[in-house]
Amino acid sequence: MRSASFGPTGREVARVGQGTWHLEMADRTQAIAALRRGLDLGLTHIDTAEMYGSGAAEALVGEAIAGRRDEVFLVSKVLPSNASRKGTIAACERTLRALRTDRLDCYLLHWRGGHPLAETFAAFDRLQQDGKIASWGVSNFDEDDLQEALELVGEGRIACNQVLYHLQERAIEHAVIPWCRRHDVAVVAYSPFGHDEFPRAGSAGAQVLTEIASAHAATPRQVALAFLLREAGVFAIPKAARTAHVEDNAGAADLDLSEDELARIERAFPRGPKPSALPMI
Ligand code: NAP
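Above: inputs. Below: predicted complex with NAP.
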């Protein structure tokens, strides 16, 4: 599994990780086996959130990583409604209990809400000083939100921005990825398969993916992930409740696409114009 430096954290993190949204709705034994198989294969970046199943996804992750905590780059997120100074600290403590751990590797603000960023970031600072989080970042931040955050805390503090990024939603390529590259903030692609909108078999886009995949003895999903990961500093967190899917996703990290193949994918899934607001789900 290829890894890369995760923003300013000094940590090497697997470029393909594992998401957990709705994982608690899958067969529990299978879901835990899938997460553990992912760890075996080096998909050690595990992304969860207090929102997912109202803590049930965190509890499932806690069970899956029991005895293996040191292998994992563990990320969770505070809900915007909880992201006051005190609320963030209380939320983090609940998350740590659910995950059965004493620390997170990265803690994110899930999206911008009503609490001032300065309050949330002050709480992140406190949690970092207390050793409860090793780093912190943001999610669903557009360029102007990132700039505001940077002006509050300065360079080298924001570990990542976790944002929607898949073949059919490439809006972050306009300004967010370039901003993050300039300021050494890792970009984490969420819903890298479009949540449940992966190009349907038989569509023109799927045909391109299938042709490129067969040239590499790979799968269309591996090609899609490799496309998203073509830029250094980008990470992806596909969610998979089945071991076979995790194994498939793990194969993407070592797949290199040629310039010609990247250009074909660009044409099949055009970036489109910059939207007025950053898309999110
Ligand atoms: P996704 O990863 O784009 O797609 C998940 C779907 O793809 C599931 O139905 C899964 O099936 C299927 N799948 C995965 N690997 C597959 C494979 N190799 N072959 C065939 N099917 C495969 O969707 P997502 O869950 O929305 O996004 C990923 C993660 O990003 C989330 O779980 C969450 O951690 C994070 N996220 C963050 C935000 C945010 O606001 N920060 C928002 C959305 C998501 P099975 O489950 O049946 O294996």
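Strands lie at 3-5, 12-14, 45-47, 73-78, 106-109, 136-139, 158-164, 186-190, 234-236.
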